[in-house]
Amino acid sequence: MIANQQLAIYGKRTEVIQQKKKGWLTIWYAALAAKGKSPLDLHDRDQSQVWSFEMRLGSKQLRNRFEMRNWQDLRHIIGDAFTDALGRIRYWHPHHRP
Questions:
Q1: Which of 6, 23, 57, 96 could form a disulfide with 61 if both were Cys (CB 3.0 to 4.6 A apart)?
Q2: Which residue segment(s) compose the domain that 72 sits in?
Q3: With 60 as the cut, is the pLDDT of residue 1 above it?
Q4: Among residues 15, 19, 18, 38, which one has the least CA distance to residue 28?
Q5: Which whole number is the average pLDDT over 28-52?
């Protein structure tokens, strides 16, 4: 469980291949077909990367900062909580100092 907030970015392609999650391929191929594009060729890593971005808000973020205590609070406030969290994100790379 996270206490505050985090943005997780990872390659979904690798997970789909390793864990044989073919349902994702169906979703991706349908989305590509709807745009008139060809399916991904998973044998060509450079041309078939799919990235997942997950914004996670933890208990401190939800309870303390936005006073969310129940599902009704969540429905009414979640947009503000995500907008706030996304506004606070900064890019950091270990080889570059701010």
A1: 57
A2: 57-92
A3: no
A4: 38
A5: 93
